[in-house]
Automatic annotation (TrEMBL):
Substrate binds at R24, H136, T356. Homodimer. Pathway: Cofactor biosynthesis; biotin biosynthesis. Gene3D superfamilies: Aspartate Aminotransferase, domain 1, Type I PLP-dependent aspartate aminotransferase-like (Major domain). GO terms for molecular function: 8-amino-7-oxononanoate synthase activity; pyridoxal phosphate binding. It is an enzyme of class 2 (transferase). This is 8-amino-7-oxononanoate synthase. The modification N6-(pyridoxal phosphate)lysine is found at K242. GO terms for biological process: biotin biosynthetic process. Belongs to the class-II pyridoxal-phosphate-dependent aminotransferase family. BioF subfamily. The gene is bioF. It comes from Pseudofulvimonas gallinarii. Residues 44-384 form the Aminotransferase class I/classII large domain.
Length: 394
């Protein structure tokens, strides 16, 4: 008999987190329009979504989803390898491979499942996985699940990555980084990581959840922007739930690798395929994201406009040229106070606190989308100036 009530222990942990002011609230959001949400009956200008290109509500995506649901039904009815792999999945995989300049791509239901699946397929006990300290939680969990040694290096420090790789034992080694860091918005030193991986004979993997659609020619992502190909970054993962405005994720690479991955990635083999209609919507999103360069141009102009304004006000901006524009406020309490003041003024800017970010690094994670206009950004800047002034200054 163990005598430990695991549910009571979990409940106590949640209560303790709430006492520390770090509890999170699940809020039910009603949809307003591409830039607004309705929260508790109030219409808020939204600066917290990852819909960077403004595609989540695009009529072409909605039409593709409806049309495909009519043809294929709602659910895929089984895992891909059973009978869940439908024509929209196949077309989407082909389109994603073509976009990212790789032989093949394999779909997963979520980015979390993709990361866990690919890492568990590639790594095992005796291997070593070297990761940036600020990598997404799903990459950390993937390495843990694989049972390999996990070594983390200080953020964006290529020399430290090299030192960690040098400490790996004789087994296989992977070097893994976010392309764009999800909470900081900065871009990984990909060229440096690629030479480091080559020199240390490690396999480089990039999670481009926030780069795909936003960076590089035709929005092909941070890896393409850095001028790297599949020989330098053999494992590319990206998601469809951010700039592509839908849901799901994929891993892209050489044909042999992807064929083998489909056999061994447990989150692919033992999970129902994503709804075919969702794949059809994502296919429409890929086509718009590639073609409509104006969305990226507008986004870049909005980012620049926001940064100029924030700099003029001495706001604590982190260095980022992506649509993720965090204001580093430090303490969780003050960050929540500023976020709450903004909400009273009609803006949704969610406070990001530990454990999502390190202690003392709480922030407002402001995200911009191509659906915003300059007036929206100006309104936000004015509200920020006031909220910061009322809560201890910039
Ligand atoms: C969002 C995100 C994921 C997870 O993707 P989901 O499709 O939301 O599960 C993985 N990696 C990074 C860097 C992300 O930002």
């Amino acid at each position: 008999m163990s005598g430990v009530d695991v549910i009571a222990r979990l409940v106590a942990a949640a209560e303790s987190r709430a006492r520390d002011g770090l509890g999170r609230r699940l809020r039910t959001i009603a949809n307003g329009d591409p830039t607004h949400v309705i929260v508790d009956g109030r219409r808020l200008l939204n600066f917290s979504s990852n819909d960077y290109l403004g595609l989540a509500g695009h009529p072409a995506l909605v039409a593709a989803l409806k049309q495909a649901a009519g043809e294929h039904g709602v659910g895929a009815t089984a895992a891909s390898l059973v009978c869940g792999h439908r024509r929209p999945h196949a077309e989407l995989e082909e389109a994603l491979a073509d976009w990212t300049g790789r032989d093949r791509a394999l779909l997963f239901s979520t980015g979390y499942a993709a990361n866990v699946g690919v890492m568990q397929a590639l790594l095992a006990a005796g291997d070593c996985c070297v990761q940036d300290r600020l990598n997404h939680a799903s990459l950390i969990d993937g390495a843990r699940l694989a049972g390999c040694a996990l070594r983390r290096y200080p953020h964006a420090d290529v020399e430290a990555a090299r030192r960690q790789l040098a400490l790996c034992e004789d087994g296989g080694a992977m070097l893994v980084s976010d392309g764009v860091f999800s909470m900081d918005g900065d871009i990984a030193p990909l060229a440096g990581l690629a030479s480091c991986a080559a020199e240390m004979e490690a396999t480089l993997m990039v999670d481009d959840a926030h780069g795909l659609g936003v960076l590089g020619a035709e929005g092909a992502g941070s890896v393409v922007e850095a001028g790297l190909d599949a020989s330098q970054v053999p494992v590319l993962m990206a998601t469809l739930g951010k700039a592509l405005g839908t849901a799901g994720a994929f891993v892209a690479g050489d044909g042999d690798f992807i064929t083998a991955l489909a056999q061994f990635a447990r989150s692919h083999v033992y999970s129902t395929a994503p709804p075919p209609a969702l794949a059809a919507a994502a296919l429409a999103a890929v086509s718009i994201a590639r073609r409509e360069q104006w969305r990226r141009e507008r986004l870049a102009a909005l980012v620049e406009h926001f940064r100029n304004g924030a700099q003029a006000m001495d706001l604590p901006l982190l260095p980022s040229r992506t649509p993720i524009q965090p204001l580093l406020l430090g303490g969780a309490e003050r960050t929540v106070a500023v976020s709450t003041a903004l909400e009273r003024d009609g803006f949704l800017v969610v406070a990001i606190r530990p454990p999502t970010v390190p202690a003392g690094r709480a922030r407002l994670r402001i995200t911009l989308t191509a659906a915003h206009d300059f007036g929206d950004v100006d309104k936000l800047l004015r509200a920020l100036a006031k909220a910061m002034r009322d809560n201890g200054g910039p």
